[in-house]
Amino acid sequence: MTDELNKKVIDLFSVNNKTKKAKHCNNGNVCKTSDGYFYVSIDTDENGRHLDEESLLKRAEAFYYIVKVLVKEGVRVYINNYKIPAEELLDFIRIYNDNKGEGKIIEIDKFFQDEWA
Fold it and tell me: b/e per residue, 41-62, with b = 16+ CB within 10 A?
């Protein structure tokens, strides 16, 4: 995410103090899942148009993720940076959730295909 988008997301959580527990949250309200996680549901874009599933999925396929993994070897610590296509991200994370990967995921950043990390 860009710094500007990060700020907008953080502002959504800090400005809106109405918290609801619901399966579907009204546009812009801060909600809480039964697991205790907060989220903001958005169903329209900046121009007030409803979101289009097909275009969102197509856009998501254009991303890849840089996943930073902290690895400790003896007294030394280093970071491995993995470039993961969007469609493989959950499989990659699952490796570390199942304790099959070496190290610990510490950060995930999203990039367009034409950007270098």
Answer: eeeeeeeeeeeeeeeeeeeeee
Token pair of 55 as six digits:
């275009």
**pTM of the model as a whole:** 0.66
- Neighbouring C-beta atoms of residue 5, cutoff 10 Å: 10
Cα(94)–Cα(35) distance, integer angstroms: 19
Write the pLDDT tens digit of every residue in 5-62: 555 555 655 554 444 444 567 767 888 888 998 888 888 888 888 889 998 888 888 8
Tokens of 90: 């959950």
Q: Which helix (H) or strand (E) holds 97?
A: helix 89-97
